[in-house]
Amino acid sequence: MRLLVDVSVLLLCFVSLVRAVTIESCPLANGNIILTKAEETITLTCVTDHGIDPSDQNELQWYRNSAQVDLNESNRLYQSSLCVQPITKEDNGVIFTCQLKGDASVNSSVELDVQFAPDLNDTEELIVEKQSDVVLSCETRANPAVTMVWRKDGEVLDLTTGGYTTTSDGITSKLSMRNVKREVHQGTYMCEITSSVFGIRSNTFKITVEDKTLQFPQGPIIAGVVVVASTIILAIISRFDKILKWCKRN
Description:
Elements: H1 2-17, E1 21-26, E2 33-37, E3 42-48, E4 60-64, E5 67-68, E6 79-84, E7 95-100, E8 107-115, E9 123-129, E10 134-139, E11 147-152, E12 155-156, E13 164-168, E14 172-177, H2 182-185, E15 187-195, E16 199-210, H3 218-238, H4 240-249
Parallel strand pairs: 2-8, 9-16
Antiparallel strand pairs: 1-3, 3-6, 4-5, 4-7, 7-8, 10-14, 11-12, 11-15, 13-14, 15-16
């Protein structure tokens, strides 16, 4: 019986020595994920359990991914708070970790799930020459992922005709046109994205195709001007005495 009592006392002592930190957040986390949107604000509060001795060794530290966050001295013991504002799309996937300075194994983390849409809502007017190449670009990076279509004059663009090609790297979508023709390529183009969270957004491009202008070969013209000017200067120098005598007589 005495042995059982001693074991119980040892277990109670062990439990009292267990240390932990927890993170409270606004908005509330789902597990360790905080769902938020760009331009919003989140607050994080790291709280220690009552068994932690408030010494310098047990002060709290915050990390944003692997970079330590600079804290005021008054914001390190018992509990420590962070305010992140405004949230940006670059914060998506960032992990905030709170830990004890004296024991990094005592820690807690949360990850930001930042929802954002592509930055679209512009209108651009382009004047291009016949037989030139044109590339239109639209941002498509978003969370959650979006669907995108290219339109011409309000209709979904038929990519099988007109020499159109599209590329996308998950961040930017591009529409390329080679050997532009007025009857084929002139018009109003739109990149239209659809988001389950933010709805429909788009960029508009108004393309006007003009006749190709005749361009003079600037290099040969400049070279010719230099040759003529040099010839005139040399001629003046070679006849300088005659010119001077003529000037004196007159």
